[in-house]
Amino acid sequence: MEKRQAIFLIISLIGILMLLFLSQTLEPKTKAISEITEKNINEIVKIRGQITDAREYNNKTFQVLTIKDKTGNISAIMNANNPIVINKSKTYSIIGGVQTYNKSLQIAISKIILE
After folding, report:
1. Cα–Cα distance between 64 and 27 in angstroms, integer?
2. φ, ψ of residue 60 in degrees (nearest 5)
């Protein structure tokens, strides 16, 4: 019986490690900004667009970006500990969690990639 339990434990640990690895490498499907609704709150989404505005707040603790694609625009908040140089003529992919602030949807950025 102990041998069987050890095998089950090893298989379980391998499964957990695989899930951790996959959660770090898999990205959500890209959505148009107009597709993001209140149904997506607390979900991780990926959008693609241009940054039209960038502002720093709370003594440069975080940045609020405005992202625009063909279907609309949305605010995105990013920790300024990892500031990026914004090039407004370039396209970015942004991955983050959908949340609300002052009754408006925004994305809390976890990853931003220059395309």
Report:
1. 22
2. 65, 30
- pLDDT over 80 (residue 25): no
Q: What is the span of the domain harbouring residue 83?
A: 28-114
Per the prediction, the chain carries an average pLDDT of 89
CATH number at residue 75: 2.40.50.140
Q: Does some domain include residue 8?
A: no
Q: What's the whole-number mean pLDDT along residues 60-69?
A: 88
Determine how many CB atoms are found less than 10 A away from the CB of residue 102.
Answer: 6
- 103 CB-near residues (< 8 Å, 6+ apart): none
The total number of structural domains in the chain stands at 1
Report the distance separating Cα 95 and Cα 80, nearest Å: 16
Backbone angles phi, psi at 73, to 5 degrees: -140, 160
Residue 24 bridge partners (DSSP): none
Q: Are strands 72-79 and 104-114 parallel, antiparallel or unpaired?
A: parallel
Model-level pTM?
0.76
Handedness of CA 82, 107, 30, 90 (dihedral sign): negative
